Every structure is written in C-alpha cells, then in structure tokens.
UniProtKB/TrEMBL annotation:
Amino acids binding pyruvate: 206
Annotated active site: 136 (proton donor/acceptor), 164 (schiff-base intermediate with substrate)
Pfam family for this entry, one: DHDPS
Family: Belongs to the DapA family.
Name the UniProt record assigns to this protein: 4-hydroxy-tetrahydrodipicolinate synthase
SUPFAM superfamilies given in the database record: Aldolase
Any GO molecular function: 4-hydroxy-tetrahydrodipicolinate synthase activity
Source species of the chain: Chitinophaga niabensis
InterPro entries: Aldolase_TIM (IPR013785), DapA-like (IPR002220)
Key words, A-Z: Lyase
PANTHER family, sorted: DIHYDRODIPICOLINATE SYNTHASE
C-alpha cells in the first residue's frame, strides 16, 4: 500500500494483560477508536509502544492482527529501532512478510553513529526493502541528529519518503521545505508543537495523546490544516496539559493512564517500567480527569 504521509498517525501503545501478555482484545478496541476518529495510518512498536521490551514474535502478532482488522483502510507502519544493521535488515524483511505497509526507522540504538555511519545505515536498509520509509529525527532523546546535509545524501533513496520531525526546533520544518520542497513529507513528532509545525507546513503528525483522545486529535489537525486557527486555539489550549504528558520520560505510563481513563486502554506496562503510584499517579490523574471533565 502506498502511503501519503499526511494526517494523524497514532504511535500506538502496546496493550498488555495482568499476566504480561499481549492484550489483543484491548488493542482492537483502541484501534477501532482510532479508525472511527479518522486517523490516516498507524505506527506500531515505537517508543510509546515499548519497542525495547517487546519481542520479534510479539511485533509479528501485532502487525498481522492490525493488518487483518484494518483490512486496507489505512497503512500499518512498523518501527525499527535496532543496534545492529544486520538486525535492522532482518526486521525490515520480516515487516514485509507480516504485511506492513511501511517502516519508521530510527538511527542505530546504543552506539552513537556519526553522520557517515548514520547515512550508510539508513541507505543500506532502504536499498534492502520495497517498503516506504519515514526517518525518525529525534536528537533530543536519541542523541543522533539527521542534518539537512544528511537528508541531501539520502534523497537519492526514493523509498525514504518522510521524516518524523522531533528536533523540537519548529523552524526545521521551514528549513526542510526551503531545501527540499516537497521531496520529504514532514510529520510533527512532538505533541506540544502540533499547531506550530502544522501551521508552518508539516503534512501531518505522529501523535501520542491521540491514543487516548483520537477524536480531539483528528479535529485539531483538520481545523489547523483548514486554516481555522481561531477555532483550533481553544481546543489546543484545552489539550496542552495533556500533550505535555508526551514529552516526559514516563510518557508510556502517563499516556497509558490517560487511555485507561478514556476507556480504551489499561495501565499495564512491561518491566522495567512500573505502573504509577502515590503522589505521581494522583498528580497525573488530576490533569487527565480535569481534561475529561472539561473536554470540548
């Protein structure tokens, strides 16, 4: 399936049972809510999906289950975040076998590759697969920046089509467009910059709080892209305390708690993560419950 790389792409959480197994029933309930809200693609196995602690077998189960449930309505993108090029290549091959529509690709994990190594890593994987690829540019969390010069080198790889823009520098959207025009589609990857990056020309967003609030996320996207900024601003102001849950090291626990309160998720996480307790849990619940009580 071709991917247009626009609209809202939820970075879905991975649902677990109390026994630490995949909860496909709850996963399906959340996926239905996303599709009904009008998302234009989904991403599995990302940071929010607890990529570092799910197995290859679990990824296969999630992708195949999603592909079957979605039945061609939107593309299914699987994240690749590996330390070795060899393993990333294996994951790319498996993704095609599982029926994924595309890949989201991070720089090498654990080892901080330099520019030459990072470009070669991306180029090698791109040339190994027919799947379209979105690069994930997040130097804040992953310490490797994909610079404009690196994108210049990678522009020759036709299936590298998009970037998840998470540099936290809104002006990078403008810089990308000034240099490359529409060669690369740009998806905002930081929830708290949704309006700013969409206004400056981003094509869509890879969102986190959409996992709990899909209707509001899609509505915000549509208002902004329609140029209805004055209508979008009250919704964005209401949303902001929730969106800030996406930029914390415990974003998984915070967003899973929000999903739970919204009725489309659970708090179960996989160790070494632990569910929230005490003052921290009460503080995050206060933010979530206030938003639910005052939702537009």
């Amino acid at each position: 399936m071709a991917i247009t790389w626009k609209g809202v792409f939820p970075a879905l959480t991975t649902k677990f049972t109390a026994a630490d197994e995949l909860d496909l029933t709850l996963f399906s309930r959340n996926l239905d809510a996303q599709l009904e809200a009008g998302v234009e693609g989904i991403i599995l196995g990302g940071s929010l999906g607890e990529a570092s602690v799910i197995t290859t077998e679990e990824k296969a189960t999630l992708v195949k289950h999603a592909v079957k449930q979605i039945a061609g309505r939107v593309p299914v993108v699987i994240n690749i975040a590996e330390g070795a090029t060899r393993e990333a290549l294996r994951q790319a091959t498996l993704a095609e076998e599982w029926g994924a529509s595309g890949l989201m690709l991070l720089p090498p994990m654990r080892y901080k590759s330099d520019a030459r190594e990072t470009v070669e890593y991306f180029r090698t994987i791109a040339r190994s697969t027919s799947l379209p690829i979105m690069l994930y540019n997040n130097p804040v969390d992953y310490k490797t920046e994909i610079t404009l010069d690196m994108f210049e080198e990678l522009s020759a790889e036709k299936n590298i089509e998009a970037v998840k823009e998470s540099t936290r520098d809104v002006t990078n959207v403008i810089r990308m467009q000034n240099r490359f025009g529409d060669r690369f589609k740009i998806l905002c990857g930081v929830d708290t910059l949704t309006l700013e990056e969409l206004v400056t020309g981003a094509d869509g967003l890879v969102a986190g709080l959409v996992c709990a609030f899909p209707v509001e996320t899609v509505k915000l996207y549509k208002l902004i892209k329609a140029g209805k900024i004055q209508e979008a601003l009250p919704l964005y102001r209401w949303f902001m305390p929730l969106l800030e849950l996406d930029i914390h090291p415990k974003l998984v626990q915070y967003i899973k708690l929000a999903e739970t309160r919204a009725g489309i998720g659970s708090e179960y996480v996989r160790a070494p993560r632990l569910t929230l307790v005490g003052e921290e849990r009460e503080r995050i619940l206060k933010v979530i419950d206030h938003a639910i009580a005052t939702r537009p």
